[in-house]
Every structure is written in C-alpha cells, then in structure tokens.
C-alpha cells in the first residue's frame, strides 16, 4: 500500500538518516541509537534514542541480551533502592529532579553499563531533548541516551503489568540491516 505524501517523506528521511550514519566510528551528536526490547513480548519493538550531546561514553560493545532495569526511585537523583540490580545492566531512568549528568553519574556509581533517560512528559512521542552537560565540572563515562516519554512510559507500564523487575533488550541495533517492512516500531509512535 502506498503511504500518504507526508508519511512517505518522513519514512524516506528516516531511512536516509539510518543509511547515512557511519558504523564503526562511534555515535556522533544528532544521530539516533536503536535498541530492541526482547522481553516482555507485548513491547517487543525497536525503540529510538538519542545520545547525550557533550557527556557520557559511547557503545563499544553490542549487548545481545542485557537487562533494562527501571531505577527505584525513577528519577535516580540519589541512592537507589534497587542499585544491586543495576550492576552490569542498563538503567531506565525518568527525567526530572536533577540534571541528566547527575542521573548518569548515579547509575555509573551503581555499576550500570549505560543509562536511558525517558522524558517525564508521558505524552511526548516525537520531541527529543538535547541532553547537555550541567554547570559542574563532573564527567561520566557510561553512555547516556534520551528516550521519548511515551516509549519510557509504555516500557514501565508493561513491566508493571507483568510484575517484572526488568526488560531484556538488545542494544545497539543496526537498523540498516533490517528491511523496512520487518522493522517492528512501537505502534504509538508515528514514523
């Protein structure tokens, strides 16, 4: 079926962004990084995130199966109640309460391999926030990614509904190797 004009243009631009990225040279500013939820099955989609602009590390390793653990408390501005589960995993954190860098440092101090910070505006399904260094001279070594609020909300909601402490994800995912018709994108996000 043919896509309407605007949808076709958006998909073409998205495909161009995917194909124009340079694998093997690290993720640069204004690029997207993709991850796929493997479990639970009701959110088995490929999600889009953006890297922090001027802090944090890059993914030098592809994790075929790693836990995405929602931080407790969700804003991760201090000591975590579930920090032991974040050790060697990836944390899902919610925006607000402190700077993006502060959240990243908290997850790093708990041994997390990366942090995905979801917008706290649960209805945000299209606007990516540019995560920048705060006014301190602190640094962080782990990758920090920004996730749309709707995506973060849907992941957390699914985990709560299934009574699960974490999702299993694959990150990063090279979407250029996946035919467009096979891409499983969240149905609530317009591509």
Automatic annotation (TrEMBL):
Subcellular locations according to the entry: Secreted
Keywords: Glycoprotein, Secreted, Signal
InterPro entries: PA_dom_sf (IPR046450), PA_domain (IPR003137), PRADC1-like_PA (IPR037323)
Presence of keyword Signal: yes
Signal sequence annotation: 1-26
Domain PA: 68-152
Record's keyword annotation contains Signal: yes
GO CC terms: extracellular region
Coiled coil stretches, renumbered: none
Stated role: Plays a role in the modulation of physical activity and adiposity.
Protein name: Protease-associated domain-containing protein 1
């Amino acid at each position: 079926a043919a896509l309407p004009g605007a949808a076709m243009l958006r998909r073409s631009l998205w495909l161009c962004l995917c194909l124009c990225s340079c694998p093997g040279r690290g993720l640069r500013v204004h690029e997207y990084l993709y991850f796929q939820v493997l479990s639970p099955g009701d959110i088995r989609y490929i999600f889009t995130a953006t890297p922090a602009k001027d802090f944090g590390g890059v993914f030098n390793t592809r994790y075929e199966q790693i836990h995405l653990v929602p931080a407790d408390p969700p804003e991760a501005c201090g000591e975590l109640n579930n920090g032991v589960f974040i050790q060697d995993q990836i944390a899902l954190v919610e925006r607000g309460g402190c700077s993006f860098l502060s959240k990243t440092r908290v997850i790093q101090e708990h041994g997390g391999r990366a942090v995905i910070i979801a917008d706290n505006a649960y209805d945000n399904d299209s606007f990516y926030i540019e995560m920048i260094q705060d006014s301190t001279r602190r640094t962080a070594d782990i990758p920090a990614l920004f996730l749309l609020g709707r995506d973060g909300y849907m992941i957390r909601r699914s985990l709560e509904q299934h009574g699960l402490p974490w999702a299993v994800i694959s990150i990063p995912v090279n979407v250029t190797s996946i035919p467009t018709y096979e891409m499983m994108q969240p149905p609530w996000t317009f591509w």
